[in-house]
Recover the amino acids of this structure.
């Protein structure tokens, strides 16, 4: 039974994930039509509330909403308007008074979407909060793997990069484990979360060992500003040891696929050649992102928290 | 609006799958006989059988469209295109009820422009599914003609929709559930149409 909000993969049951993926299969077919629009959410309003800049995720949600015929409103409070003493929760309450049917929230601080969900009547969908979760990214990654491999259960997935600072990694770890995959992480020691093993993943500091027998290799974006700090000596050294190219990919299974949440630092996380060609599936991930977000909007939008509470009473 | 009508004129059939209060109103032989007749009617009505395009409404319409296509091949010597069109995202009750029914597959292998599209559904009642199917169809193009096959017509229409080809008219009560089913809960033959008295849900 799918809950009111989509705040993280940690909250979902395997059946919920399966239902979202199954719905996305049919949403993807709409994207292949000449007329890429269905009337399902006609007259519904979806608000993109992005406190952190984003082009790709925001556009993906916007296209998804429009393909379902919803009206999509983009709201990106600038830091200056927030400085005018309007708190985040006040902003959210103001929007809620306009009766949206779903509010999509991105914020640089972990936990903000949940705080907003606590005060809103509309369902909240987390589009990324700090280093906490990015559930729709993990769902589109799961969907892409399922489309490519025909299954998720029993696969070996290696996630390479700055795991400790990555909401994409965290959501994917929860998602792939719930769907029955083996999850490995590979990174320089400062980028491995201290409690990695308790999450149920195997941590590696050797890329080669982490890739042996892998069906899926997921590279994460390296934030250059973090590299400049204490995490790692230099971009060149990171790229030499943890950057993926065709030679290193040989350690994985012959039919392994390569994923990346984008945008790729070409020549850092992935070689130029691997960024643009199979077995990388980066543009399929983007395409599947729209289908997954259509599925999420279909399944989560339109409900009212207060009405649901009334019924409970 | 409910029209009190007796469940008369329907044979009491065997009940299968352990549901005690369900009765069969059309068995596999009856379904095949009806579809053979409908195939003849389709050929009679349409001067250019090569422009025919059968479009099944899942799930029940799918095996029926397959059987119809087979009949059209045997009787008319023509290979008709067969598509599948899910109507769920076009339903008119999604926003009012907040329900989110599971989606089913859509596969439209050829363009519908200028074709004679024959929608195939198992059980027709309110006409709302047919309305949704017509809207969905228009998103795929501009058919020359749209016709509708209903294996079972229950009456209780809520929209001005009339069937072109009917397998069997079956008067039922609004609360009854009428559905096509196959062997062991699948939609594989032998097929039958059953009526159950369970409350809740509708086709």
């Amino acid at each position: 039974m799918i809950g009111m909000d989509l705040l993280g993969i940690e909250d979902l049951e395997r059946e919920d994930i399966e239902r979202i993926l199954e719905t996305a299969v049919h949403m993807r077919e709409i994207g292949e039509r000449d007329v890429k629009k269905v009337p399902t959410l006609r007259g519904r309003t979806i608000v993109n509330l992005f406190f952190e800049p984003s082009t790709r995720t925001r556009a993906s949600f916007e296209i998804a909403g429009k393909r379902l015929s919803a009206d999509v409103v983009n709201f990106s409070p600038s830091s200056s308007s927030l400085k005018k003493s309007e708190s985040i929760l006040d902003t959210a309450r103001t929007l809620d008074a306009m009766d949206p049917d779903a509010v999509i929230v991105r914020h640089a601080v972990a936990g903000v979407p949940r705080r907003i969900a606590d005060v809103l009547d509309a369902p909240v969908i987390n589009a990324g909060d700090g280093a906490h979760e990015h559930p729709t990214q993990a769902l589109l990654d799961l969907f892409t793997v399922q489309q490519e491999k025909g299954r998720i259960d029993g696969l070996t997935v290696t996630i390479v990069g700055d795991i400790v600072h990555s909401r994409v990694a965290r959501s994917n770890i929860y998602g792939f484990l719930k769907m029955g995959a083996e999850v490995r992480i590979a990174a320089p020691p400062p980028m491995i979360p201290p409690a990695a093993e308790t999450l149920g993943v195997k941590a590696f500091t050797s890329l080669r060992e982490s890739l042996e027998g892998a069906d899926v290799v997921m590279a994460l974006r390296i934030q250059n500003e973090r590299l400049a700090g204490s995490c790692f000596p230099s971009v060149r050294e990171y790229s030499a040891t943890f950057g993926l190219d065709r030679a290193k990919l040989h350690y994985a299974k012959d039919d392994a696929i390569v994923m990346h949440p984008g945008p790729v630092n070409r020549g850092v996380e992935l070689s130029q050649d691997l960024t643009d060609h199979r077995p990388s599936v980066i543009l399929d991930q983007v395409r599947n992102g729209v289908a997954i977000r259509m599925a999420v909007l279909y399944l989560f939008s339109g409900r009212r928290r207060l009405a649901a509470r009334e019924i409970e009473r | 609006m409910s029209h009190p009508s007796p469940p008369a004129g329907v044979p009491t059939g065997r009940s299968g799958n352990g549901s005690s209060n369900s009765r069969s109103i059309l068995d596999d032989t009856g379904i095949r006989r009806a579809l053979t007749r409908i195939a003849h009617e389709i050929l009679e009505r349409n001067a250019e059988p090569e422009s025919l395009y059968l479009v099944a409404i899942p799930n029940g319409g799918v095996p029926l469209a397959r059987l119809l296509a087979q009949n059209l091949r045997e009787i008319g010597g023509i290979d008709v295109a067969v598509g599948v069109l899910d109507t769920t995202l076009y339903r008119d009750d999604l926003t009012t009820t907040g329900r989110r029914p599971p989606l089913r597959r859509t596969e439209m292998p050829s363009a519908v422009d200028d074709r004679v599209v024959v929608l195939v559904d198992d059980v027709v009642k309110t006409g709302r599914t047919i309305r949704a199917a017509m809207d969905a169809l228009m998103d795929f193009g501009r058919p020359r003609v749209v016709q509708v096959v209903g294996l079972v017509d229950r009456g209780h229409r809520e929209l001005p929709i009339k069937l072109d080809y009917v397998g069997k008219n079956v008067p039922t009560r609004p609360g009854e559930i009428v559905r096509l089913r196959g062997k062991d809960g699948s939609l594989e033959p032998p097929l039958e149409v059953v009526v159950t008295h369970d409350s809740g849900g509708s086709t």
In short: The mean pLDDT of chain A is 92.
